[in-house]
Amino acid sequence: MAGEDGAMVYSVLTIYLCLIFLFSAISKLIRIRSFVELARAYEVLPSPWDRIFACLLPFIEMGAVVLLLFRQTNVWGLLILVGLLSAFAWAVGSVIGSGRVITCGCYGKFMDAKADGFTLVKIASLFVVCIVLIWGQTPGAGIDVRVLPFIVGAMLFLFTLLAQKIWMSHQNILAGLQKGGKP
Known about the structure:
It is found in: Membrane. InterPro entries: Methylamine_util_MauE (IPR009908). It comes from Kroppenstedtia guangzhouensis. Keywords: Membrane, Transmembrane, Transmembrane helix. The chain is mainly alpha-helical. It has 6 helices and no strands. It has helices at 3-30, 32-40, 49-68, 74-98, 117-135, 147-178. Helix 1 (3-30) packs antiparallel against helix 3 (49-68) and helix 1 (3-30) packs across helix 6. The longest helix is centred in the C-terminal third of the chain and has 32 residues, at 147-178. The radius of gyration is 17 Å and the shape is globular. The relative contact order is 0.16. The mean pLDDT is 89.
């Protein structure tokens, strides 16, 4: 991404990814036992690998965030996130394909969102952001430390959380209507 506008977009998207994955990691760590059970419900890894992966995941996410912050290592952080997002998409896709309904665990127990099509769209969107950052990287690219990129990145992060909450509310209303009761 060349020029000042490209540097601004690069910074905004990097800050957005950092906030998403830092929030995700902290939410999982706060109630790690609950998150381990959420991860086991996917039934995509054999025991004990499911528990090991679930315990390591928040630290991998935080490590990727730290790598994103430095221009010498940001591509490694992006590659780790691409790998994680690919694994998440495979796991959610397998749950959807099986017809099971489970909590996605994207934000630990902070949000009890279902592993569904919305989750896949969210994963795909984050994947695209990572690919854009990898392809748009210029030598010495790093985060612009001015206020505007932080504000816009934080707004994108909050918009993502808001969209998740709205989707969850929509699902709850539909579930209430299907039961014939009030939502």
